[in-house]
């Protein structure tokens, strides 16, 4: 494995509430509730380290309220954190409502807090020293300061010949941003890792395979995550491979896509071809849904 992985993205506190059946409006619904470290960017970094990447770095922004805790959690997972402590905003918080039925589907209530206040002033080209791949959390595109940071980081990566991947992160926020604007902002990205819903939203096509193929005419490599149906690998307007999912008994789907992305990137950095890296991503996604929260159990060091 040659070179480090640098992830830029969100570090948040997850409050995971696992309930069974529909929420009872206007009264109580019994749930099992845990407070855990999370954030798409931070989760990807932790899963990449867990999957054997020996040098994973994370640039994120947190509030003073939980900065020390998040730094300890990241370091303990094998990630080298570069956390900017925001003097005004608290760390972002996400309430994850997880239905404990068979699908373990989750719904997020998101207060982005400090994480979307990353800006070009938080960037240094030295962050790319020794870096072989840069990964961007799509949540960065949903605020003006962090969009400006993305532009700076993309420019610096291009100047050094560092390939860049991006996970769109949220179909809901993508709708607000606008598809045309998203595609413009992601010019220069080498690998796009959308979910099924995100791929269909970005293309206006109902079939995920058609959507992945269309996106791959705009970006060199598209790996479309399909949940229980595995993943699609698309290049130059064609779906090149359909990778099956690994069977799992879901407890919580929070962070499954982040696990996929982290393992996929670790595999790419180790020299795997996209199809094999995608299979590794499916393995990690299956492991993730059988756990509560978005992080792996421990890094493999």
Automatic annotation (TrEMBL):
CDD domains: KdgK (cd01166). Coiled coil: none annotated. PROSITE patterns: PFKB_KINASES_2. This is Sugar kinase. One of its GO terms (molecular function) is kinase activity. Keywords: Kinase, Transferase. Residues 5-297 form the Carbohydrate kinase PfkB domain. It comes from Streptomyces gibsoniae. PANTHER family: PFKB DOMAIN PROTEIN (PTHR10584:SF167), SUGAR KINASE (PTHR10584).
């Amino acid at each position: 494995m040659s070179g480090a992985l640098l992830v830029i993205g969100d570090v948040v506190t997850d409050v995971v509430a696992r309930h069974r059946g529909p929420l009872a409006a206007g009264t109580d619904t019994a749930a099992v509730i845990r407070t855990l470290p999370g954030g798409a960017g931070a989760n990807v970094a932790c899963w990449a380290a867990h999957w054997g990447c020996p040098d994973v770095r994370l640039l994120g922004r947190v509030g003073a309220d939980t900065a020390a805790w998040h730094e300890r959690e990241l370091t303990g997972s094998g990630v080298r954190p570069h956390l900017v402590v925001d003097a005004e905003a608290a760390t972002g918080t996400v309430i994850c409502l997880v239905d404990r039925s068979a699908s373990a589907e989750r719904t997020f209530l998101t207060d982005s807090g400090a994480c979307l206040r990353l800006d070009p002033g938080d960037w240094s080209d030295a962050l790319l020293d020794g870096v072989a791949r840069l990964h961007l959390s799509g949540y960065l595109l949903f605020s003006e300061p962090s969009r400006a940071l993305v532009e700076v980081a993309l420019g610096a990566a291009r100047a050094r010949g560092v390939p860049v991947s991006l996970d769109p992160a949220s179909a809901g926020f993508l709708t607000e941003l606008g598809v045309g604007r998203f595609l413009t902002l992601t010019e220069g990205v080498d690998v796009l890792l959308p979910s099924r819903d995100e791929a269909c939203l970005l293309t206006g096509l109902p079939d995920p395979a058609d959507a992945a193929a269309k996106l791959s005419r705009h970006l060199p490599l598209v790996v479309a995550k399909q949940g229980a149906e595995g993943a699609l690998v698309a290049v130059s307007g064609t779906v090149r491979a359909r990778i099956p999912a690994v069977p799992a008994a879901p407890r919580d789907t929070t962070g499954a896509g982040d696990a996929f992305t982290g393992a996929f990137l670790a595999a790419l950095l180790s020299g795997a071809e996209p199809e094999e890296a995608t299979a590794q991503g499916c393995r990690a996604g299956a492991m993730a849904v059988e756990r509560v929260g978005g992080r792996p159990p421990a890094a493999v060091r």
